[in-house]
Design a protein that fits this description.
Elements lengths: L6 H7 L17 H9 L1 H6 L8 H9 L7 E5 L1 H4 L3 H4 L5 E5 L5 H11 L7 E5 L2 H5 L7 H17 L3 E5 L12 H6 L2 H17 L3 E3 L2 H4 L19 H20 L8
Parallel strand pairs: 1-2, 1-3, 3-4, 4-5
């Protein structure tokens, strides 16, 4: 007769496996946005700022020879989709946009994706996804605090800051309806007014895209976007000219600190 542990005893000795159900995310009232948020639970818990996205390419840039006039474009999908090499040929501009991100996520990765690259200028375009609630409800005051934190961190490290206005949105196409409803124009205008005043007080360049992109109804011009939120080629051409002028202004400005 063998001396092994009886099968019944073995089964009793094994720890019971617990079934963990996926956490539920409160509904935003928009089915597609709810699906987007639910699909990103793992990212929200494991790598909230998505630091892994650019970590490797950042390390490659840091190993390469220093670039004197590097500019980092920092933001969400509007920045990520902007093919900088096409609109700014020959310029040492680096794209650090991540689609869907909000300012809390951007603040987490700001040191890695901006400061550690030692740019001369950073162009920040953020806030539209905060209004939409991509990572949960956000007050304008919270968005403003995150934008101010990024600006202060940049200037403390000798990086000239350009803060961009939020773009208008439109509802002229079927696929634009949800984007438009998630982003009340009143909140966009309020945040843009704060950005303008903050930049004036703190001697930061304000890149105001809004007037050049808005139509007579106060919406994003129909011919500049197919989905009501993301610019098409015509939209980016307008933005590129404005961004280039802002970069020239920032490069020529005396660097001021925000901190005492």
């Amino acid at each position: 007769m063998g001396c092994g542990v009886p099968q019944a005893a073995q089964q009793q000795a094994q720890p019971a496996q617990k079934t963990v159900s996926a956490p539920r995310i409160p509904s935003t009232g928009f089915a597609e946005l709810d699906q987007y948020r639910a699909a990103r639970i793992a990212m929200f818990t494991d790598d909230f700022g998505q630091l892994s996205r650019y970590r490797a390419v950042n390390q490659d840039l840091q190993k390469a020879a220093p670039v004197k006039d590097r500019v980092v474009f920092f933001g969400d999908s509007i920045t990520e989709s902007w093919r900088l090499e096409q609109y700014f040929p020959g310029e040492p501009y680096v794209n650090r946009g991540i689609g869907g991100q909000t300012t809390p996520q951007m603040t987490v990765r700001f040191r890695q994706d901006v400061i550690d690259l030692h740019p001369r200028v950073v162009v920040i375009l953020a806030g539209t996804n905060d209004i939409a609630g991509n990572t949960g409800p956000m007050r304008n005051a919270d968005i403003e605090a995150d934008l101010a934190s990024m600006a202060e961190l940049a200037k403390t490290h000798g990086v000239r800051v350009i803060l961009s206005s939020l773009l208008p949105v439109h509802n002229y196409t079927p696929k634009a309806q949800d984007f438009f409803m998630q982003r009340p124009m009143a909140r966009i205008l309020e945040l843009n007014q704060w950005l303008k005043e903050y930049c004036s007080i703190n001697q930061i360049v304000f890149l105001d895209y809004y007037p050049a992109l808005v139509d007579e109804k106060g919406l994003l011009k129909r011919d500049l976007s197919e989905d009501g939120l993301h610019p098409n080629d015509a939209g980016y051409k307008i933005m590129a000219a404005l961004a280039e002028a802002a970069i020239e202004k920032a490069e020529g400005a005396k660097l001021q600190t925000l901190l005492p």
